[in-house]
Write a structure and sequence with these properties.
The protein is mainly beta. The protein has one domain: monomeric porin ompg (Porin). The chain has a 15-stranded antiparallel beta sheet that branches.
Length: about 280
């Protein structure tokens, strides 16, 4: 199987070299802040204002009427201590996908596999006070997909902001956070659709005790597509448990408000995460 980049090689190389150099500097040249410097490391790792150094294997199944996608994502999070109240979280996602296209006739079925679009993430987190924090930053999505069906074929930015409130009513590590993102394309193949989408996560996490948790809307999957003028709302629930440094979780989502071209009908994602 041959992998190819869906962008001009010289432009891609010019952009990727400094990006990966910065990531390499932080990943290998600077230590992540020690866990004892964090007021608390919550169980799920989903709090945008309290990042932890970890490596995740994420296995996802996603279904649409005309295709089914299986994705394995390798994720690395590396927070860097800037001051007592400020931290910078760096992340890299490298996804591999297998797509089964389902037509009305058996001969229309086709399988496609390969690397999908790589994601780079940089978010500043700030402790406002003991029970509150804010975060803001952006993600860069690079059109590295090996096949057009494995990615959007566009260079995309995803600026984001979030605010978190710790809530003792939800348990020792319970919290509510509101995250908003704007996913938009700024370059790439002219033949591929423009991306312009608002994304939200009204995330509520309940501490169940014994290092277990229940999270509602852990992903920013409430979406408003500005190009098609369409709203997408799922039910999105995650349950997980921490075993020391190891975190296991399962997230399940089902569309309840959607129209044509919805991101998915249903999806499920299992995670095995290891903190360092």
């Amino acid at each position: 199987m041959q992998f190819r980049l869906m962008a001009r090689p010289k432009l891609l190389a010019a952009i990727l070299r400094p990006l990966f150099a910065v990531f390499a500097l932080h990943l290998f040249g600077q230590p992540a802040f020690a866990q004892e410097n964090v007021e608390r490391v919550e169980t799920s790792g989903g709090d945008i204002t309290r990042p932890s150094q970890r490596f995740d294997f994420r296995f996802e199944r996603e279904s649409k009427p005309d295709e089914r996608t299986t994705k394995l994502t390798l994720r690395y999070d590396h927070p860097v201590l800037l001051s007592h109240r400020w931290r910078l979280n760096l992340r890299m996602d490298v996804p591999f996908a297998w797509v089964n296209h389902r037509g009305e006739h058996d001969e229309e079925h086709a399988d496609t596999s390969g690397i999908s679009d790589v994601l780079l993430h940089a978010v500043l987190a700030h402790y406002v006070k003991e029970n509150e924090g804010l975060a803001f930053g952006s993600e860069l999505i690079i059109p590295t997909a090996a096949n057009e069906s494995l990615g959007k074929g566009k260079w995309r930015l995803r600026p984001m902001a979030g605010y978190r409130w710790s809530l003792s009513q939800l348990g020792e590590d319970g919290f509510f956070q509101l995250i908003a993102r704007y996913d938009f394309s700024f370059a790439g193949k002219d033949s591929r659709s423009k991306v312009s989408e608002l994304q939200f996560a009204p995330n509520v996490e309940i501490d169940l005790g014994h290092s277990a948790y229940l999270s509602f809307y852990p992903s920013a999957d409430i979406r408003y597509d500005l190009v098609r003028d369409k709203l997408f709302v799922p039910v999105d629930i995650e349950v997980g448990k921490s075993f020391g440094r190891l975190v296991l979780s399962l997230e399940v989502a089902k569309a309840i408000v959607h129209e044509d071209h919805a991101p998915y009908d249903w999806r499920a994602e299992g995670r095995i995460g290891m903190r360092f």
